Amino acid sequence: MAARxxxxxxxxxxxxxxxxxxxxxxxxxxxxxxxxxxxxxxxPADEAAVAIDDVPVSPDALDAAGPSTTTxxxxxxxxxxxxxxxxxxxxxxxxPEPDQVYSRRGRQRGEVSATPEPAAMLTAERLIEQGxxxxxPAPEGFLQKLLYDATLHLVNVGDxxxxxxxxxxxxxxxxxxxxxxxxxxxxxxxxxxxxxxxSTLLGMAMADVREDRVIAIDANPDRGTLAExxxxxxxxxxxDVVTRASSIQAFSEFQTLISRDDTxxxxxxxxxxxxxxxxxxxxxxxxxxxxxxxxxxxVITDCGTGIVHSxxxxxxQRADGIVVVSGxxxxxxxxxxxxxxxxxxxxxxxxxxxAVVALNTSTQGTNLVKLEEIEAHFRSRxxxxxxxxxxxALATGSTIRYDExxxxxxxxxxxxxxxxxxxxxxxxxx
Length: 430
Known about the structure:
- Among the domains are: 135-173, no CATH class; 180-425, P-loop containing nucleotide triphosphate hydrolases (Rossmann fold), CATH 3.40.50.300.
- It has 16 helices and 13 strands.
- It has helices at 45-49, 59-65, 124-127, 142-150, 161-173, 195-209, 238-243, 251-254, 274-277, 282-295, 312-318, 330-345, 349-353, 371-379, 392-395, 407-422, and strands at residues 3-7, 10-14, 20-21, 178-179, 182-187, 214-219, 259-260, 265-268, 298-303, 323-327, 356-360, 384-388, 427-428.
């Protein structure tokens, strides 16, 4: 129940519950008065400590004077720093001076220190006998080994002459090569003289001794057969390397594209399709060579037949040494000599002087010519010449197994490898 009251000129309806009801006709003239607290917000102490004093600026003065710089003074009040908020910096003890703490001077051998010794006192100079005589390794050779065992290892006369020669040859083949990869092209102007066989023997002899990686690349634009000289473990070719070069980041990825021999020689095959192999040119070889240089120390390039094909220029530009293959007949020796002449005429005179000629005596007509005369001719033009004897394991033209070769053939391959490595620079920058 609402009762009507009148104050001044405004009608007010007051209900039983105490609520005030305003008539609709009086809404336009309604006024409310609200009393708010005097203090709305107090500045906290931490904000006041970094407060900036108010500096009144007149806009008229700015317009009259133009753009200017106003300096505002910042007054920092003292802020109380609580000890629990401090972060203690870690203390790093300084290294002791030499012979100041970690020293045994003035003490006898085996004498116990008066203070606990730190771990740094266990030095190699203290624990290892410096002047102790090292025992020589057991000798190799039948008589030498027999004498060594009979005297209970008291008499060691050293290795036999043959063993010393073998180890000396191993040291030459395994010479450390620092820096970029070394490239060794194997080339000739005539086909059928055993160029691919010589490339395989050279690579096997190197890979069998050296601790680093050795690869032989078949760069023959006309369907090479280098990959058939080892047990093939992949169908990939140089074309796959060119196609996937941008995605190959690690050796494990590149390893899927090559075949590996028991001697640890890696072989990269050429294109099997002659129609495709014609496209393998200088640019493609550069891509393959750059990829091989990332993972190998020695790169042997089995060049194609002839010396004027599309890959030859890129091959010679990277060459650190060359191997020229000659057969044992008159025409084969003459064409090999003409190969040297062509190289000299095309700016490769230094490569010719440092070249090694591999004389393959398993070709036809070898028994009818004077091999010593051929050797004498090439010795006047190149650094060294190696005669590779006939071997039934090589005559078949199939897979070559290094451990099944005749001793003379393996020795010739090792001698060829040693001579080639002798001519390679020990340091090579990019």
